[in-house]
């Protein structure tokens, strides 16, 4: 806990990933979002620590509530504890779908089915599964694992998953197994954000 308390997370404008400072030798940053960063601790290998930026810490309570509502599910990571500015969640092995595209790793259709089932599961728990994008879904032993549920209390649909699903169905067969340049993935992300 001492190590994570030494880390400073700062949000950036224009929906850009957060900046981090003060990472100690026993921590490794494994994910950057627009509100938080996620760390792996070598001294606690079964856990990940999601630390929110200053000014975004209200989301800790909301995300903890979402995890409580979700309960135990094979589709989502598990939250073990919440503190003022960070959550302790299960460390999940696997590559994000974003990394799979960049590395040319096959994304099986089962992943799509799993996300659809996860969305239905969350809705049945009274939640609104949204903010589902390439960096929030892991490929884990041929299946999907969703690692960010921070916006499931929001009211509106952002249609991110619908666009991804359509892209998978229409375009993924054209480059399945091929490495996709990062500039192309980032260009598509920016076009989506502008249209939104």
Q: Concise description?
A:
This protein has 196 residues and is α+β, with helices and mostly antiparallel strands. It has helices spanning 2-5, 58-70, 97-103, 109-124, 160-170, 172-175, 182-195; strands at residues 8-10, 19-21, 27-32, 36-41, 47-52, 79-82, 86-90, 95-96, 137-140, 143-146.
Question: Can you tell me about this structure?
Answer:
- With 196 residues, the protein is of the alpha+beta class.
- It has helices at 2-5, 58-70, 97-103, 109-124, 160-170, 172-175, 182-195, and strands at 8-10, 19-21, 27-32, 36-41, 47-52, 79-82, 86-90, 95-96, 137-140, 143-146.
- It has two domains: 2-90, Phosphorylase Kinase, domain 1 (2-Layer Sandwich); 95-195, Transferase(Phosphotransferase), domain 1 (Orthogonal Bundle), CATH 1.10.510.
- The protein has seven helices and ten strands.
- The strands form three sheets. A five-stranded antiparallel sheet has the order 3-4-5-7-6, covered by helices on one side.
- A hairpin with a 5-residue loop joins strand 4 and strand 5.
- The radius of gyration is 16 Å and the shape is globular.
- The protein starts with a helix and ends with a helix.
- The mean pLDDT is 94.
């Amino acid at each position: 806990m001492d190590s994570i308390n030494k880390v400073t997370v700062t949000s950036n404008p224009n929906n850009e990933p957060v900046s981090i400072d003060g990472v100690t030798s026993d921590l490794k940053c494994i994910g950057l979002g627009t509100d938080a960063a996620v760390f792996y601790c070598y001294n606690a290998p079964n856990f990940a620590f999601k630390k929110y930026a200053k000014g975004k810490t209200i989301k800790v309570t909301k995300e903890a509530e979402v995890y409580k509502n979700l309960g135990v599910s094979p589709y989502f990571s598990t939250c073990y504890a919440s503190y003022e500015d960070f959550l302790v969640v299960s460390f999940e092995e696997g590559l994000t779908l974003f990394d799979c595209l960049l590395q040319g790793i096959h994304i099986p259709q089962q992943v799509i089915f799993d996300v659809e089932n996860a969305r239905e599961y969350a809705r049945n728990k009274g939640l609104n599964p949204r903010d589902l994008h390439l960096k929030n879904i892991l490929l884990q032993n041929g299946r999907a694992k969703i690692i960010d549920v921070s916006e499931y209390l929001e009211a509106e649909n952002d249609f991110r998953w619908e666009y991804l699903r359509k892209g998978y169905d229409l375009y993924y067969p054209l480059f399945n197994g091929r490495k996709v340049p990062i500039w192309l993935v980032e260009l598509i992300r920016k076009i989506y954000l502008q249209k939104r």
